[in-house]
Design goal:
Strand content: under 5%
Structural class: mainly alpha
Helix content: 55-70%
Order of helices and strands: HHHHHHHHHHHHHHH
CATH architecture of the largest domain: Alpha Horseshoe
Shape: globular
Length: 234
């Protein structure tokens, strides 16, 4: 059975329906929390997920060819729909198109957590992720770092540590992503991450924030946290 294709009219109806879920108070809250050039409607994440799930039942490619960039929520749904693609080459095509649209931490983190196809094709996507981490653009670097955190921390971490050292942006959200990645690395592979941080090879801001985030984790023992506190740089 042919899946329903997306016309201009159908896409406009979709945007109108999306806007109907706007919550003014939530919109005000998000505007303070999410720095983006896009308009924010104020639609909650479970609603966005529901839209993406319904869109995935239609002709996804015709949807992705129709997408516009009117709202922050629209881009999040686009990323969630891209995450439903099961063909590696198709995913890569629309993932590449999506990357330049990301201008805030929320779009990055919500969508990267859903790009699970990357876990099945780690070697294929590694070169692209390396390129992103080494970008001078803050949010391209953040995308790469969040993908490493989500899909690459179960193997030898040496190349990941090396990539963090090679970062070319000192943008706040990229540095925070690097710290976040390291804090999760402590949970996944404490000994290797501890030994690396002990070498003091990273900027102090990333180094200390990684320790702070790790100490907030419920998955590290009190003795591990105490050892980490000794590594904090003044």
């Amino acid at each position: 059975m042919m899946k329903e294709k997306w016309t201009i009219q159908k896409y406009q109806q979709y945007l109108a329906k999306l806007a109907s879920y706007q919550e003014e108070a939530f919109c005000s809250f998000q505007k303070k929390l999410i720095p983006t050039k896009d308009s924010i409607l104020g639609v909650r994440t479970p609603v966005l997920q529901k839209f993406a799930k319904e869109i995935a039942k239609t002709d996804v490619i015709s949807f992705l060819e129709r997408v516009t960039d009117t709202y922050y929520e629209e881009k999040v749904i686009e990323g969630m729909v891209i995450a439903t693609l099961r063909d590696q080459k198709l995913f890569a095509k629309y993932f590449d198109r999506f990357i330049p649209k990301v201008d805030n931490w929320a779009t990055c983190d919500l969508c990267c957590a859903r790009f699970k196809i990357i876990a099945r094709y780690k070697e294929v996507f590694y070169s692209k992720i390396k390129e992103l981490v080494q970008s001078k653009e803050e949010f391209k670097a953040r995308i790469g770092l969040v993908l490493l955190m989500n899909y690459y921390l179960d193997e030898d971490l040496s190349k990941i540590f090396s990539l963090i050292e090679q970062m070319k942006t000192n943008g706040y959200y990229a540095q925070m992503a690097a710290s976040w990645l390291l804090s999760v690395a402590f949970v996944k592979q404490y000994d290797q991450t501890y030994a690396y941080l002990k070498e003091n090879r990273l900027p102090k801001e990333i180094h200390n924030k990684a320790i702070s985030k790790a100490n907030d984790s419920y998955r590290l023992t009190p003795s591990q946290k105490q050892a980490l506190k000794q590594l904090k740089r003044i």
